[in-house]
Specification:
Layout: E1 4-7, E2 10-13, E3 18-24, E4 28-39, E5 46-52, E6 57-59, E7 67-72, E8 77-82, E9 91-101, E10 104-109, E11 113-118
Parallel strand pairs: 2-11
Antiparallel strand pairs: 1-3, 3-8, 4-5, 4-9, 5-6, 7-8, 9-10, 9-11
Length: 119
């Protein structure tokens, strides 16, 4: 079984910054997609940013210029650097991985980390 462990969430004031990290419990050989989604209270889960096969990045229009996604292959991690946080960024942020790991193919989610932005 492969798990994703997220860290870095918390309470921050509007305009502040956070860095979210997601580490897989197995070596990742290749990815189809690895990235972050978020779900605000009462809303559907939505893509924030992801790294797709070949290294292409995709991100939501609402976060362009404020969120930067990066991947550390050696550490099997993906990070999300967030700048200029807004109250509307408040949500549970989930890491998602689709790919081939040392334990086989996976399509898995992390348990989520809460990000709360106060105005």
């Amino acid at each position: 079984q492969v798990n994703l462990v997220e860290s870095g969430g918390g309470l921050v004031q509007a305009g502040g910054s956070l860095r979210l990290s997601c580490e897989a419990s197995a070596v990742i050989y290749s990815i189809k997609a690895m990235g972050w989604y978020r779900q605000a209270l009462g809303k559907q889960r939505e893509l924030v940013a992801e790294i797709a096969e070949g290294g292409k990045t995709n991100s939501a229009v609402s976060v362009k210029g404020r969120f930067t996604i990066s991947r550390d292959d050696a550490e099997s991690t993906v990070s999300l650097q967030i700048f200029n946080l807004k109250p509307e960024d408040t949500a549970v942020y989930y890491c998602h991985l689709v790919g081939l790991t040392a334990r086989g193919n996976v399509d898995i989610w992390g348990q989520g980390t809460q990000v709360t932005v106060s105005s």
